[in-house]
Design goal:
- The protein is α+β, with helices and mostly antiparallel strands and 434 residues long.
- The chain folds into 2 domains: 290 residues, Zn peptidases (Aminopeptidase), CATH 3.40.630.10; 126 residues, Alpha-Beta Plaits, CATH 3.30.70.360.
- Helix content is 34%, strand content 18%.
- The chain has a 6-stranded mixed β-sheet with strand order 3-4-8-5-9-16, sandwiched between helices. Strands 6-7-18-17 form a 4-stranded antiparallel β-sheet. It has a 4-stranded antiparallel β-sheet with strand order 12-13-11-14, with helices on one face.
- Helix 2 crosses helix 4 and helix 6 runs antiparallel to helix 7.
- The longest helix is centred in the middle third of the chain and has 21 residues.
- 44% of the residues are buried.
Length: 434
């Protein structure tokens, strides 16, 4: 049942009056590093903060390790790839409802990508606030969203609101680098509901769909040096040039063959193909000046919901074998092909799901305008809810920038707006016990 205008106003006013508290929670999370550096990760300290916070808000809270989740390693989506989990727990918490309402999961990953070697101009773990921006690794992806989830528990308690349905809040480890094992563990542990919101940075859009993603590592080899007899060597430079030119053929092939899903109808490039890393070795005067003999290329492509792994990978291998046959002189050594990260499928729920329409209603109330309903431009762990546990789920979260780059930030005003809509939706979906 839709909320009445008086309650909507009360909820929004509460969030606005506590915006500094919401920012403080996000800053706390940013200041506790939780970098994912496969095969290991550093999520434990931040997860302990989350667990203590949720216990303090009166939720039944559990910090648990993957080894204690029955059936996890046997699950068909579990992907080990030498990842280590001895100190990488999940947190699951439940605010029990009074009965008669729908249950809701608020989910987010606590791990971040590493701070990296790019030059930061702010402390990556300082949580520095400048005007409307809060800086730090993970501020946008996705501690802004996780902080919003935690704030829901504090807001309900502060407002004295009891819900009819259960509210589940969880933070999972190991989502980055294609590691959705933490999300699977949460479902197998029983932290499930009638619907789920994953608070990734959706830029205040409701995202019922995700693209899939595939990462390929290619190693090209040739001969180099700088002092030859006869023709000056080109090493792997000519093969690199040839490969980069031909890559556009694969990109065009993907555009022609992929059926564009309705949630991506407005996307200028629904199935992008890109190079995310290219290196021929170390840099600097401690290294000799020489024509490179080896090049490592990280190639990345995205997929639409409904596309199948075997079809796209057959197309990739056929294309790559074709360009090698067409120019064997560039490939004296057969290139090495590796897939370092699991296949992440595209996924979507139907536009008719009540989760979408009811969240849109709450977002319109909070934002003062209709929210966009679009697919997110990246893969994530949402497909686990959709495909493995038959749970309708969407992404909803704030706006930010420099995601996975130096000086990552989240926009504070958008966090507050996201929290207003989310608090309304929690009350509407679960029901308020009178």
């Amino acid at each position: 049942m839709p909320l009445d205008a008086a309650l909507r106003s009360r909820l929004s006013s509460f969030v606005e009056s506590r915006r500094d508290r919401l920012v403080e929670i996000i800053r706390d999370l940013v200041r506790i590093p939780s970098e994912n550096t496969p095969p290991v990760g550093n999520e434990e300290a931040c997860q302990r903060y989350v667990a203590e916070y949720l216990k303090g808000q009166g939720l039944e809270t559990e910090l648990y390790y993957f080894r204690d989740v029955k059936g996890l390693k046997e699950h068909p989506l579990f992907y080990y790839k030498e990842r280590q989990y001895s100190n990488r727990p999940n947190v699951g918490a439940r605010r029990k409802g009074q009965g008669g309402g729908r249950s809701l999961v608020l989910s987010g990953h606590i791990d971040t990508v590493p701070k990296g070697t790019q030059p930061w101009t702010r402390d990556p773990f300082g949580g520095q606030v400048e005007g409307n921006l809060l800086y730090g690794r993970g501020s946008n992806d996705m501690k802004g969203g996780v902080g919003t989830n935690l704030f829901m528990a504090e807001a309900l308690r502060g407002l004295g609101i009891e819900l009819k349905g259960d509210l589940i809040i969880e933070t999972v480890s190991d989502e980055e680098f294609g590691g959705v094992n933490g999300t699977i563990a949460g479902r197998l542990k029983g932290y499930n509901g009638d619907a789920a919101i994953i608070t990734e940075p959706s830029f205040l859009r409701i995202c019922p769909a995700q693209r899939g993603g595939r990462t390929v590592h290619l190693t090209l080899s040739s001969t180099g040096g700088v002092l030859p007899e006869g023709k000056f060597p080109t090493g792997v430079i000519d093969p690199i040039r040839y490969f980069l030119l031909k890559m556009q053929e694969f990109a065009e092939q993907r555009k022609k063959k992929a059926a564009v899903h309705e949630f991506y109808a407005d996307s200028p490039d629904p199935v992008p193909v890109s190079i995310t890393k290219l290196t021929t070795g170390p840099w600097g005067t401690k290294e000799p000046i020489t024509i490179p003999e080896i090049c490592q290329i990280e190639m990345y492509w995205q997929m639409m919901p409904g596309e199948k792994q075997q079809d796209i990978e057959k197309d990739f291998h056929d294309w790559f074998e074709g360009i090698m046959r067409a120019a064997p002189e560039f490939f004296p050594v057969k290139p090495k092909i590796e897939f370092p990260v699991r296949w992440l499928p595209g996924s979507a729920i139907a536009r008719s799901e009540p989760l979408i329409s009811e969240l849109a209603e709450c977002a319109k109330s909070a934002l003062g305008k209709e929210p966009l309903i679009q697919g997110i431009e990246a893969p994530c762990d949402m497909y686990v809810f959709h495909q493995a546990f038959n749970t309708p789920a969407v992404l909803w979260g704030p706006r930010g920038g420099n995601t996975h780059a130096a000086d990552e930030y989240v926009e504070i005003d958008s966090v507050v707006a996201a929290a207003k809509a989310q608090l309304q939706f929690v009350c509407q979906w679960c029901g308020v016990a009178l």
